[in-house]
User: Fold these one by one.
Assistant:
Number 1:
Amino acid sequence: MVHPPDVRLDGAPAPVAPHPLDNAAWAALTGPHAHLAERVGRAARYPSDVAVFAALADPADPAAWADLHRLVGPATDVAVPGADAVPEGWQTSGGVPGVQLVDTALRAEPDPEAVALGPADVPEILDLIARTRPGPFLPRTVLLGTYLGIRHRGRLIALAGERLRLPGWTEISAVCTDPGHRGRGLATRLVRAVAAGIRERGDTPFLHAAASNTHAIGLYESLGFTLRRRTTFLEVRTPGTAHAPEAL
């Protein structure tokens, strides 16, 4: 006898599998970015010069937090997206409220002025990031995916690229424009160009923004992104002892 896939044999509804975007960093670190991951059991993280994120298979699982403590060591700061609370003995500097938006109607297209950026361009990228502050960008963040830029008289003036990549989805990040060149639509052009590459390989673009950045959220929504969920970017410090408690 064949049963519908969403009904158990006892007639009760089958549990719904969590959406990968609900724990995007974990889906990336155990998926397309697994080659970059440092991992212990049910915890994983990016190298500290690639990205600030760590992730847990289940943020409600005390064993996953214990694995994270073993992974990063005592008295270490790390960002854990999607976690709402920390176990006893951990500290948090509070969370930054954020939003997650997904592409539902974006017009993706290459840009003839966009140039691919790589490790040799990192000093210029870091300079632009320091002047515009779109979010964390580290010396090897360029390894996460494709980064595109626009130059003016040889100088990098706008940037956008790929950060978290998980099965079927890729995050657009580091969207920024030099203050002296804003108002020309450069960020929009680069978002469309990065999205074109993401779509070409069969993924759907998504992105995150601080909930307080209403200007950026409005721009993304006008381009065809739709709010999917609200989330928190939690910054935590591991316990200072060599071993974390195994339970909350």
Number 2:
Amino acid sequence: MGHNVVQQTGPEQRKSGETLVEMVARRLRDAITSGALKPGDRLPTEGGLTQEYEVSRTVIREAIASLRADGLVEARHGVGVFVLTPPAGAYDGFKSADPNKISSLLEMLELRAAIEIEAAGLAAIRRSPAQEEAILEAYDEIERLKQDQKPTVEADRAFHLAIADSTSNPRFREFLQLVGKQIIPRGVLAEGDTERSSQEYLQQIQAEHLRIARAISDQDEAAAREAMRLHLKGSQQRYRNFIKRG
């Protein structure tokens, strides 16, 4: 594609309270849903997008990670990022979930555990080399953002979606997309604000992510299930503590 995806957009054209990542992701989503970008189209290169939007490469990577998490684009190793057919219907999530209630967030985590423990086991059995690489790339992206002290919510979501994809059963991804942003509760708690998670907190999460990724990479079904179980059970306790602290 030699033409601009959208008109040049400077920071002054962002919506109120919108981050650069959100602005770029929104404009690209608009281009996809409007048909300006069609299924099968390749996005401009990372360098081209940084020039087009006048933002850093980090912003572009995070925006594309958000689109990947929503099933709107896919990265093909060594080729580029391509537009997918938008999922049927809007994934608005479970509207009854209340971020101000511990019980509501814990209900969502319990439901995720019922699905994602199975997904981790299936991913360990079924993952292809490309799917394994996608999981590890998502892990690395969280680590990079953590080291840069930047929000990791979208990258965390992409990690779990990469595991869902590795089951080779599209229903797992569809379920997580239906859950929406609430798949990562800290993203709901910090909505509209800078992520306030401590480095110690994120380090613990990353240690759990690494155990999951390694078990899937080793094709160890039992270890993958147990690693995901410990991760989500640990999350339940962390969010109890997080909300109590206010």
